[in-house]
Write a structure and sequence with these properties.
There is one protein chain. Helix content is 61%, strand content 6%. The protein is mainly α and 216 residues long. The protein has one domain. A hairpin with a 6-residue loop joins strand 3 (115-116) and strand 4 (123-124). The longest helix is centred in the middle third of the chain and has 23 residues, at 132-154.
Length: 216
């Protein structure tokens, strides 16, 4: 799951007490922002194993701090509290926390069994990465359906949401169709971090000038 994670941000941003879309885009990928940062720092680990799933070759064997349910809940509580104090709104904090936690639940659909409850076995994952004919349309439907829902509620300025969607779809196309790396190095983590930051920046720009949502 990549751009499908942003569906939670789009749906949440339609709520009148939610923070702005840029904040929710950070929330939607906060777990992976932490994961790739931890990979660079050597706190968590992965390896590349060709053929481990049909759609990618990431063997995510060590990620207890980000991709356990307990770890994801910790990130959700922490970021939710930050937003709650920042905006002085418990509702905004709760919405933000729910978007963070949605990351683990959406990953559960696509990952092979490498997700944990608290960092140790048993491991969970329904494995839709092995079924591209299901996973690929599901991800696009989640993204476009949630963006349509957001657009109806927020009515962003013409062209801005469309640009964001084009960028996200380009990222997803690269993720799906670019040659899979066979050797792990820092570039994979850095590329992921840059993509998440750029998406959040454009999402912040999309939401600029809205009067029905708090500034964040």
């Amino acid at each position: 799951m990549f751009v499908g994670h942003y569906s939670a941000a789009f749906v949440a941003a339609a709520h009148p007490k939610a923070p702005k879309l840029g904040t929710l885009f950070v929330a939607a990928q906060l777990v992976d922002l932490g994961f790739f940062s931890f990979i660079l720092a050597g706190v968590e680990n992965m390896r590349l194993t060709p053929g481990i799933t049909v759609m990618n070759n990431m063997d995510l064997y060590d990620m207890p701090w980000t991709h356990s349910l307990l770890g994801a809940a910790g990130w959700a509580v922490a970021f939710g509290l930050i937003v709650s104090f920042w905006l002085r709104s418990r509702a905004a904090g709760a919405i933000t926390g729910a978007v963070v936690l949605s990351h683990w639940l959406l990953d559960l659909l696509v990952h092979r069994p490498d997700l944990t409850l608290a960092g140790s076995p048993p491991k969970f994952g329904l494995g839709l990465w092995n079924y591209p004919a299901i996973e690929m349309p599901l991800e696009i439907i989640l993204l476009l359906g949630s963006a349509w829902f957001f657009a109806r509620a927020a009515r962003p300025r013409t062209g801005r949401l469309e640009l964001l969607l084009l960028v996200l779809l380009a990222f997803q196309a690269f993720n799906w169709f670019a040659p899979q790396p066979t050797e792990l190095d820092a570039s994979q983590s850095i590329l992921g971090l840059v993509a998440y930051v750029l998406a959040a920046a454009i999402a912040w720009w999309v939401a600029r000038g809205r009067s029905d949502v708090q500034a964040a």
